[in-house]
Structures are given as structure tokens and as C-alpha cells.
Amino acid sequence: MKSILTAIFLLVMAAPALAQTPPQTEKLGVGDAIRVTVYQQPDLTTDARINERGLVAMPLIGELKLAGLSQAEAATAIGESLKKGKYLKNPQVAVALTTLRSRQVSVLGLVARPGRYALDDTSTNLSDVIAAAGGIGAGGAEIVTVLRDGKEQKVEVFKPFKLQGGDTVNVERAPVFYIYGEVTRGGAYPITPDMTVMQAIAAGGGITPRGSDRRLKLRRPEAGGKLTETDAKLNDRVKADDVIFVKEALF
Q1: Torsion of CA 86, 87, 92, 94, to 10 degrees
Q2: Number of folded domains that form the chain
Q3: What is the rounded CA–CA span in Å between residue 180 and residue 186?
Q4: 32-57 confidence digits (pLDDT tens)
């Protein structure tokens, strides 16, 4: 009878959280808030948040590392500590997740609403999280930087990519080139993959009647901030921060 009552107790204590939180196999993380309940020991009921070291302060047993454990594993660890400290002979412990903070990502840079966004089973895709942040802002790149465990990787926004809790997504400014001189609309323009000088001129509205496609100069920044200037051809590839100058034709 006692074991049946214990089982009912554990289910009742966990029930409020089960409908709103990930499965009990989901690992606890820094920032998560939990409720610890010990059967027939109301003084040991604890509402706590996992600190930046992954620890939770518990009555009697002090700090205990719970980050990286499931709710069931955390309950077992707390029970073992109470038993080992000879506070209770056979403690029955339930751990319920009350606030999920660890499964969040930070979205920074050129998005409409930078900030932290929670992940769930239906919105772990990079594109979904970017959409939740209001989408890529004007001038933002569609290839973003994802920082995970101290390592950076470049990811295309509209290709399938699953984010993990703790990731940081940085939407940087899209790479551009500059075109001036005898073109219809001089200025800065985004680079498309494998863009050529001819395509760059077209992006600037084409060459004016006074210009010549045989008198093209390309200035390119090199390492150390040095600029190199060369004669450009129409089929040359354009790189980020290139400056193309279309000169007047010689009559």
C-alpha cells in the first residue's frame, strides 16, 4: 500500500510540469528552475534555480550538481545524498521543471528583434528562430554565424539546421562591393555567389554612354589594409569590399 501511495505522490507532484515542459528525459541546464519535493517531508520542499556552475542549493545536503541530469536522474541524486548523509532512510524524491531557461538561444545582429528565444520540439530550426526574431533586417546576410561550445560555423538560414540550447546566432551585414564612375547608379551592392564584374556593372544599372567596358579598374583590400589596383575584365570574379571604377571611353 505504501509503495502505491508513493507512486501516486510522485505522479501528482510531476503532473503540473509535464504538460508544459519537455519530456523527463530532457537534460536540466543552467538557468532552469525546478521544484524538489520529498515524500512526507514538507520542510524539504525546495524551489530553486540551477546556477551558472550547474548547482542547486538543497536543505541539509547543501549544493548539488544537477545540470546535465534528467529530472528523474536529479531526483535519484538528491535521494542518494539524503540517504548518504543519514538524513532519511528511504527518501522518495520528485523533481519537476517549472521554468525552462537552458534551451534558449541568443539571436544578435541584423534582425528585427534581437534577444533570447526559447527552443521547443517545433521550433529548433534556424529559420524558425530567425523568423521569431522578426526576420533578417535590411542589409543582413543570409549566411549567419552560429557559435556553439566556443566554435563558430557558417550556416545558410534557409537550409535545415537544428539549433541547440546555448547557441548564439549572429546575423552579420551581407558582403557588398562598390561601383563608381560611368555607371547609371553608383554605390554599394550585395554580392551574389560567383558574381562577375559584368554582373556587378548590371547591378549598377549598366555603363553610361560615356563609359567603356574596356577601361575598368578594380581596387581590392588585402591583408593589413593595403589596397591593390588592377585592370579588371568582365569575367573577373568580384569579392567582398571590392571597388570597381568604370572610366570614360577614349574618343
Answers
A1: -120
A2: 3
A3: 5
A4: 889 999 999 999 999 998 988 889 99
